[in-house]
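Researcher: Let's do a round of design. I'm pasting the structure tokens now; please hold your answer until I've finished.
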């Protein structure tokens, strides 16, 4: 079903989240160093519309800042320390912009799964901004990215901006009408929690022609079990070279 990009079996989750501060440039470098050929990361939008690499809706867990992203301007966010929470050796690591991340991916020759992670009420707006950024600034030397989200509204909005986007539908549990949803968002891949997948579910999804990507798998034995059952790729906090 996928024709324009080849998904590797091992994808670094938020870079190499288990070994470096998540969703930072140093984390992407670490994933590359460990042998990953792709990384996954989350994108949201500041109050003033700057696209940043960030998972949470607020700043508290991974930075020395406080408050919500949606109410914070880039001028405040760009100076925050996004590394110390993980380890003092990463002090003053910054939250990167999406544009900065594209430049690093190009330098490292790293492919990407870009997750649209909108702040509440920003589902369409953030998706449109991300799709435009990909359309205009995605490095030509890299394979097309995979664009995923738990927000089906975001996926529909992104696809309208750029019909060439490769879409991945993200689920915590597999809804009974997953096929209908996948068609509506024009998904090419299905992403699901590895803890709930079983052989029957994998057969059902792959029978329809969808590759399955499972998150977050930090045990190589479990990864091999999933591959044996028919899973295409796994997201891991500790990426390794295949």
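Researcher: That's everything. Go ahead.
Model: Designed sequence:
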């Amino acid at each position: 079903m996928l024709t324009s990009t080849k998904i590797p079996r091992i994808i670094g989750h938020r870079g190499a989240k288990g070994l470096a501060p998540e969703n930072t440039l140093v984390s992407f470098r670490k994933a590359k160093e460990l042998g990953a050929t792709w990384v996954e990361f989350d994108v949201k939008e500041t109050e003033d519309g700057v696209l940043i690499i960030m998972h949470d809706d607020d700043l508290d867990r991974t930075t020395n800042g406080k408050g919500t992203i949606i109410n914070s301007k880039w001028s405040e966010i760009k100076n925050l320390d996004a590394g110390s929470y993980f380890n003092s050796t990463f002090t003053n690591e910054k939250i990167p912009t999406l544009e900065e991340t594209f430049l690093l991916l190009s330098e490292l020759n790293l492919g990407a799964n870009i997750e649209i992670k909108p702040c509440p009420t920003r589902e369409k707006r953030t998706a449109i901004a991300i799709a435009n950024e990909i359309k205009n600034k995605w490095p030509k030397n890299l394979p097309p990215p995979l664009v995923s989200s738990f927000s089906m509204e975001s996926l529909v909005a992104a696809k309208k901006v750029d019909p060439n986007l490769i879409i991945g539908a993200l689920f915590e549990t597999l809804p009974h009408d997953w096929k209908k949803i996948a068609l509506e968002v024009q998904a090419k891949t299905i992403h699901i929690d590895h803890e709930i997948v079983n052989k029957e579910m994998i057969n059902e999804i792959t029978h329809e022609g969808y590759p399955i990507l499972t998150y977050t798998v930090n045990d190589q034995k479990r990864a091999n079990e999933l591959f044996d059952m028919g899973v295409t790729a796994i997201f891991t906090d500790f990426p390794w070279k295949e």
